[in-house]
User: Fold this.
Amino acid sequence: MKKVMKIFAAVLVLSMLAVAAVACAGGDTGESLTVEPGILNMVTNAEFPPYEFHQGGKITGIDAEIAAAIAEKLGLELRINDIDFDSIIPSIEAGKYDMAMAGMTVTEDRKEQVNFTTSYATGVQVIIVPEGSSITSVDDLFEEGAFHLIGVQLATTGDLYATWDLEDEGLASIERFNKGADAIVALVSGKIDCVIIDNEPAKVYVSQNQGLFILDTEFAIEDYAIAINKNNTALLEKIDAALRELIADGTVQSIIDRYINPN
Assistant:
């Protein structure tokens, strides 16, 4: 009898372990697919208004609100984690967080590291210059013999494009800052000639600093999407499905319109 009970107990333990393994591998609920059960851990760099920024002791913005709407659809609690921008992709690759939203541009290089959802917004890289600058258009950066000191936020697409198109061609020297705001401080103080950054935070920085303006010509146009670990395709499908629903019912556009004047 004791032997039978021992066998029964062993079978029960193995059954419980099997159920736990299935849950961890991604069962039917969104909870089992996330780093922490019941939590949707989003990682960002909250220095990118109006997509993510600090206000009233919390992180808010377009990405934060879209993430909250996705979490609600999945029946999860949203937790936003703020780290340096250049650490975001590695942290997703390492499985530390469930998804990244940080005005994250879809690029071929990044697609080799992470998976992306459907795009939910379009970004435009622009050039900020001080009044009286000799830089009056994007073309001025590419003139033969031109050489400018350009400020960018480290590891952003502004950094990537400026590096590939200008620094690698011997047309500029790139000064990289951990925050876009730090690049603006350097521009105001005359340490650099211009800043390449997304149009929406550029508008905020220009409104806060007299004597700066945005050139009319665009430097690059890009798509924003949510980055997810390549090994978690089940979570990708769930988040993408929720995002598509929010796009289709107008929720995403209404969030964007609250932060960005469509006119």
